[in-house]
Amino acid sequence: MKNAILMIIDMQQGMSWPQAGDRNNPEAEANIAALLVHWRAHHGKVVHVHHHSTEPDSLFWPNQEGVLVQTAFLPLEHEKCVVKSVPDAFTYSDLADWLKEQKSEAVVIVGVSTNNSVESTVRSSGNLGFSTYVVESGCFAFAKQDFDGQERTAQEVHAMSLANLQGEYAEVISVEEAMALLS
Q1: What is the set of domains in the chain, with CATH numbers?
Q2: Which InterPro entries match (predicted)?
């Protein structure tokens, strides 16, 4: 596919801080960075999604360090940026219209957290009719208590979120399969 678009979600400094929580997939940043290098080398289009919270006590409250983009994922001037205040990057943004204007054949989604902003955005992408792919090792989640009060590891949260998405909203793929989409 010549027109697969890479979407990087919420790779901001606060996501790497200990107070964000116990997480899985420690190689996610390296995998996302490798995909970004690949996309740029092949002149692929990239969308950067950044969360700006409406909650003053959030790590992602505007105008503080947690909201800043991690250095490895700083957007280039010509790359699309979407700022959101809810998990879904499509809500209150021009993202769907922009993707249609690009005549995108596919959207490849990576970032954090798998069960929150990634899952929400992937569901909308699939529901809007975009061919959507999620890179399993290009996402991570945080440990969380389930509805019944049982503690779930970050890997359990990640795996369940990917299971929710696979087949119905997206195809879950590897880094190598993602790179092959833009070659």
Answers
A1: 4-181 (3.40.50.850)
A2: Isochorismatase-like_dom (IPR000868), Isochorismatase-like_hydrls (IPR050272), Isochorismatase-like_sf (IPR036380)
